[in-house]
Design brief:
It is built from three helices and 32 strands. By secondary structure, it is mainly beta. The two termini are about 25 Å apart.
Length: about 500
């Protein structure tokens, strides 16, 4: 009798401890050799497994006084993570960070280290690896009046590597907002944002070196500077120190999707903004992932078939080559052709030349979570209307996903299946799907956190094949704190 699969199945299916399993085997007269083996396994398991990886208890990253919001995380270079968040412990909002190792141990000072506790208010941070077991953190900052952007690098020990209050990304005396960052592939960071210096909202970008020096033009260069407003910039690395940026544009009566490629020397590679989709009706909320060959896949919400005004979006996608050529049909291919509202999509590469996208839609009474895989030729790989990730009762929303490291994805979302009466009971659930669209975990997902009160703003990264670490803001205490969990 091989007891290991039995133990694993019992633990997973019935959520019992190894102790309870041992007692159950003893009552049934299982051979003493097996019992001894089980007891040794119990002892070893207790010495090596952190009990805080649990969907109700979880691991507290920060429970300091006042509220903590908007946690994001990146790799620490040793299978653990570095987390950063917006923190209200000092009466105004500052930026704090913490490192957690693969076993769930807190590495830095309890409740985190101050990345920036300058007297002014700092807003929601973003984070990338510095490729040396540390991280670069970028945030919005009001120390000069209107909101600017600053950055700081911390090493593996939590030591600040740049100026004490951070180095400026952009301090142009107008509003900058919606900062997004990626690694430049050389220990630095590329930051893109919405910028009002021209009197309307444009898209600007900057590269900061690993030494904290601005590489491109002071206060950034314009990715697009047109009449009307440009929103929600998203970017990926071009693999050569530059980036491909996508946004939605309302310079014309219809909202459209555009893109631009900037090289490592800050040159705009495409002669003018690339019209990814200019179909009739509105398009918005673009996401972007690399195609692995210097180009990109772009997915967006599209209202070309909307019977009313902004009531029902469908998902479309386009493959853009490194030279800007569109490789699929004009204005994109349809991801799901059901005439139902599809929103809040999120995309990841499938490690086989294509991508996987997840979204919520309202084909049933409540919003559910679906997913689809598209190959490099633009062929729909799973059911033409998507595969169900979660169709549990109640509302599911805000799905996000990461690669599972094996051609599939781990999808996580906010879940309200236990929301009854006058009390809102948020929870975070997750599901793993393989390259064929088959769910690998229990039907409708496993709980990442189902503690009392609300859990919001989850963010996750892959740590190994089939495993993810998820962080979020949690209201189980007197106010919002930061918690983390690992699922696999």
């Amino acid at each position: 009798m091989n007891v290991i699969p039995v133990i694993s199945q019992l633990k997973y299916r019935f959520k019992v401890s190894i102790t309870e399993i041992v007692l159950s085997f003893f009552r049934r007269g299982i051979h003493s050799t097996i019992l001894i083996y089980l007891i040794l396994l119990l002892i070893c398991g207790q010495s090596t497994t952190n009990s805080d990886w649990d969907p109700k208890n979880n691991l507290p990253v920060c429970v300091a006084e006042n509220e903590q919001f908007f946690p994001v995380l990146t790799f620490d270079g040793n299978k653990g993570v570095i987390v950063t968040w917006r923190d209200g412990r000092n009466g105004n909002y500052d930026i704090y960070a913490q490192r957690i190792d693969i076993d769930g141990n807190i590495v830095w000072t309890p409740d985190g280290i101050p990345v920036c506790d300058q007297a002014a208010s700092q807003s929601a941070p973003t984070i990338v690896t510095d490729m040396k077991s540390g991280a670069i953190i970028v945030w919005g900052d009001t120390r000069n009046g209107s909101q600017d952007s600053f950055a700081q690098r911390v090493d593996a020990n939590g030591t600040k590597m740049w100026e004490a209050d951070g180095v400026s990304v952009c301090i142009e005396p107008t509003l900058q907002d919606d900062f997004t960052a990626i690694s430049d592939g050389n220990g630095g960071v590329i930051v893109v944002w919405e910028d009002w210096r021209s009197g309307n909202q444009d898209i600007y970008i900057q590269k900061i070196s690993s030494e904290g020096k601005a590489i491109w033009k002071n206060n950034g260069i314009a990715v697009v500077r047109n009449e009307g407003d440009q929103y929600d910039p998203a970017l990926i690395s071009d693999g050569k120190g530059g980036a491909i940026i996508v946004w939605w544009d309302i310079s014309t009566p219809d909202w459209n999707i555009y893109a631009q490629h900037i090289d490592s020397d800050s040159n705009l590679v495409w002669e003018s903004p690339n019209p990814v989709c200019t179909a009739d009706g509105h398009q918005g909320a673009p996401s972007i992932v690399t195609d692995g060959n210097g180009g990109a896949f772009c997915v967006w919400a599209d209202y070309r078939n909307d019977p009313n005004f902004l009531t029902s979006a469908q998902l479309f996608a386009q493959h853009i080559a490194a030279d800007g050529k569109h490789l699929w049909k004009k204005d994109g291919i349809q991801i799901c052709d059901l005439p139902v509202n599809q929103q809040q999509h999120h995309t990841v590469i499938d490690e086989k030349g294509g991508f996987i996208v997840t979204w919520w839609d309202d084909r049933d009474v409540f919003a559910d979570i679906y997913a689809q895989r598209v190959n490099v030729e633009g062929q729909i790989m799973w059911d033409k209307v998507g595969v169900p990730v979660c169709i549990e009762g109640g509302v599911q929303q805000n799905p996000m996903l990461i690669s599972d490291g094996a051609g599939g994805a781990i999808i996580y979302w906010l879940d309200y299946r236990e929301d009854f009466g006058n009390t809102t009971e948020d929870a975070i659930y997750a599901q793993r799907i393989d390259e064929n669209g088959t769910a690998l975990w229990q039907e409708n997902g496993i709980p990442v956190c189902n503690a009392e009160k609300e859990q919001i703003s989850p963010n996750a990264i892959s740590t190994s094949i089939g495993s993810a670490i998820v962080v979020w803001s949690d209201a189980r205490g007197n106010d919002h704190d930061i918690y983390i969990n690992r699922v696999q």
